Amino acid sequence: MNILVIGSGGREHALAWQCAKDDNVENVYIAPGNAGTALEPKCQNVVLTSTDASEHSAVIEFCQNNDIDMVIVGPEAPLVTGIVDACRDAGIKAWGPTAYCAQLEGSKTFAKEFMEQNNIPTAAYQGFTDATAAKAYVDEQGAPIVIKADGLAAGKGVIVAETIEQAHEAIDDMLADNKFGDAGSRVVIEQFLQGEEASFICMIDGDNILPMATSQDHKRAFEGDTGPNTGGMGAYSPAPVVTKDVHDKVMSQVIQPVVDAMKDAGHPYTGFLYAGLMIDKAGDPYVIEFNCRFGDPETQPILMRLQSSMVDLVAQGLAGQLPSEAKWDNRPALGIVVASKGYPETSSKGDVIAGLPELDTTNDNAVKVFHAGTAFSNDNENEVLTNGGRVLCVTALANNISEAQQAALAVTAAISFDGAQYRRDIGHHAIARENAW
C-alpha cells in the first residue's frame, strides 16, 4: 500500500510516522514534508507544485503515477480550496472534508452562522467589514473581547483583547492595515468566554463518528497562558477537563449536530473534525472554533497514544465503516513546541539545530521529536536547519502528565538553536489536578 500525506508540519510528521508503522504500507510520501519526515523508515519527501492552491493537478498526477492508495490531507488550506473534491473526481481516495464542509474552518462567519442555525453552543458574536462599526461594537460590549480574522491565518488570526484599546488596534491591523491579507478583510468579534479550553477531535465518515483521545492545546506564547496567540505551543492528552459527562455533551450538542446538518445539506462530512472548546464551571461546552483537520500540536501526543492502525481507521472511514472506538495507550502524552526566534510575529530560518536525538522511540524511553519547520542544509546533508515558526514538538509518553512533562523537558533542554523558545509549563492544568489528588 502506498500513501500520500500532504503537508509539512509536526502534524504531518506524526501522521506519516503512524502510517509507516503499518505492516501493509510499503511507501509513505509526504508533500512537501520536512527534515524529520525524510528520516523516517518507509517515508519519502516529494515536491508538488499545487498542494495548497485551487489547482490540484500535480497531486492527482502524482497519485496516478505512483499507485497511491489513499491521500491524507494534513493542513487546512488545500482542504478549503477543494483538494478532496478534485481527488474524488479523479477516482482517488482522499481523507478529508470537501470544500463545502471545510468552510467550517475557512470562514469564521460561515461557522458562526452554521452554529447559530443548528443550535450549537458558542459565544455571542457580530461580523464586520467596516472598522468604525467594529470599534463601535467593541465600545458597546466592553473588554475582554475576542477579535478574529474571518479567513485562514495559520492559527494566529485570533486576538484576545484585554482592553478596548487592544481591541481597536486588532481591528485596525485586520481591516485597515491588512495584517492577515484576505483572511482579515472581514472580522468576527466574539464574547469572551470563561473556563478551561479543550480540543475534541473526531474522525467522521459521513454517518459514523470515532472520537479521538481528548487533548488540551496551549495557544498563548508565554508561560502562565500569557502573551499573543499562536498556532499552539504544546499539548497533552488526555484532557482531564473532558469528563464522561462533558464528553457526552460534546458528542450530543456539538459533533452530532454537525454531522446531521452537513448530511441534510447534501454535503456529508468526512475526515477529521476539530472542535476547539471552552468548558465552563458547570461543565457545559462552548465551541470557540472548528477546524477541518487534525489539530497541531494535538496530533503529536494523540498519535503517540494511538495503538490502532491509523491506516486501517482511514480505510474504514473511506469505506463508510468507521468503528465507534479506537485502541489507546492508557498512559498520557505531552508535547512541547520549540519555536524559532520572533515567533509568532516573525520566524527565523536557516539556524542550525543542535542536540537532536534519534527519531526512534521505545517503551523504555518514550520520547519522540516530531519535526515541523525544519529543512536540511544545502551545504551539509547531515545538518538540520530551522525553516519556520514552530520548529519541533518534543513529545513524551509516561505514567502521568507530570512525568511526561519532565521527560519532554529533559530532551527539549538538550536541543538548541539561535533564538529557540519554548514553554516549560505545558500541561499545568492537568498537573494541578494531579497534585490536588
TrEMBL record:
Listed cofactors: Mg(2+); Mn(2+)
Keyword Manganese: yes
Record EC number: 6.3.4.13
Example of a GO biological process term: 'de novo' IMP biosynthetic process
All residue ranges annotated as the ATP-grasp domain in the record: 112-319
Known pathway: Purine metabolism; IMP biosynthesis via de novo pathway; N(1)-(5-phospho-D-ribosyl)glycinamide from 5-phospho-alpha-D-ribose 1-diphosphate: step 2/2
UniProt keyword annotations, A-Z: ATP-binding, Ligase, Magnesium, Manganese, Metal-binding, Nucleotide-binding, Purine biosynthesis
UniProt GO MF annotations: ATP binding; metal ion binding; phosphoribosylamine-glycine ligase activity
UniProt cross-references to InterPro entries, sorted A to Z: ATP-grasp, ATP_grasp_subdomain_1, PreATP-grasp_dom_sf, PRibGlycinamid_synth_ATP-grasp, PRibGlycinamide_synth, PRibGlycinamide_synth_C-dom, PRibGlycinamide_synth_C_sf, PRibGlycinamide_synth_CS
Catalytic activity: 5-phospho-beta-D-ribosylamine + glycine + ATP = N(1)-(5-phospho-beta-D-ribosyl)glycinamide + ADP + phosphate + H(+)
One Pfam short name: GARS_N
Family (UniProt): Belongs to the GARS family.
The protein, known as: Phosphoribosylamine--glycine ligase
Species the sequence originates in: Psychrobacter piscatorii
Lineage of producing organism: Bacteria, Pseudomonadati, Pseudomonadota, Gammaproteobacteria, Moraxellales
Gene transcribed to yield this protein: purD
